[in-house]
Write a structure and sequence with these properties.
With 328 residues, the protein is α/β, with parallel strands linked by helices. Helices cover 37% and strands 12% of the residues. The protein has an eight-stranded parallel β-sheet with strand order 3-4-5-6-7-8-9-10, with helices on one face. A two-stranded antiparallel ribbon has the order 1-2. Strand 1 and strand 2 form a beta hairpin. Helix 8 runs antiparallel to helix 11. It is globular. The two termini are 29 Å apart.
Length: 328
Amino acid sequence: MKHHVFGRMPFTVTNVGFGAWQIGGSWGDISEADGRAALNAALDAGMTFIDTADVYGDGRSEKIIADVLKSRGGKRPMVATKAGRRLNPHVAEGYTRANLEGFIDRSLTNLAVDSLDLVQLHCPPRDVLYQPEVFEGLGALQKAGKIKGYGVSVEKVEDGLKAVEYPGVVSIQIIYNIFRQRPDHLFFQEARRRNVAIIARVPLASGLLSGKITRDTHFASDDHRNFNRNGEAFDVGETFAGVPFEVGLQAVEEVRKLVPEGATMAAFALRWILMSDAVTVVIPGARNGEQARANAAAADLAPLSADVMAATREIYGRLIAPHVHQRW
């Protein structure tokens, strides 16, 4: 894995990090033991960036991270969390400094630290991005030492373009993968110009780009790939990257033809993301240690050829873009 400076922050992170949504919940039955094994394997492989959120398992993800890092000792990786989704209802009016400070205090306890490395607004309603007082409040919490930096996790390219206008925003987390290519058109250029770190999430389109999902795959009742197919619980773009399931399966079969011999489709999909110089870190999740090790190894794949990259763009344009490009 390569190491990148994390935007304007004093952290250096591996280009493949650990996404800790799966070990928190909403991905079917993943035991705490498996979650710990996955995180330990990722850290053993050298990953130095962990991404979580206060709502992943209602704090379970943050607490597992705290316990694992305490038991390991030594130099800590950078740990990013998110805040805002605990609001009920999740509305712009709830993004007050008092509420955000309460969420941050809870994460400080869950992660067992005195200061959070990075807090990201967790896919806030668009109106939040037009409220400077929200970002002024985050700046005040940074000055108070509760957070070292702040960023925004966004659903849409437009939201990312608005968020980077705030000079204190040091990172944007956005969905970017073979099935969601729009961020590379304009947003990445603007983020690079402002030296804003890019965290690429949902890199495998909720497992579609692992190549292991079929029409007969069963998803547990508590797996968002079951209960959020049409955006019933949160933005549908979080599930299968917003691609209709049958369309996604069709596109996967075309992508499969591009995967080099000896490589998995998941590794290929992660390597595709790393072809962009704008991406600071990609954060695939893992259900167990084997998946975490495979994610780390994806960085060792040879760079993809121009012909292969062109072929992925053609598949996206023909099959996927009509469903997602203008939505996100």
